Amino acid sequence: MDQNIAQTLLTQGAKLILLDVPTGTDIGIDMKSWNTGNNFKGIKMIPPGVHFVHYSAVNELGELAPRIGFFHDFKKCEFLVKRWDSKEEDISSESVPEETVQRLKDNLKELDRYLGPYPYETWKQWTELTSGITESLVARCSPLCGYVRSALELEHCSDALRPRGGESDCKPRRSGRLTVEDKEEELLPNLKPRPGTELRLTEIPDKHYPDDATPSEITRHSLDSSYVLDVILKKLREPVEIIGEMQLTFICFLVGQSLDAFEQWKKLVSLICGVDNAIPQYRSIYMEFLQALEIELLYVPEEVLCDIVASNNFVYHNLCKLFGNIESNSEVDGRLKSYAKRLQGRLTAKFLWDFSNLLEEADDEAPVIVTLA
Question: What positions does the domain AAR2 C-terminal occupy (predicted)?
Answer without folding.
Answer: 202-356
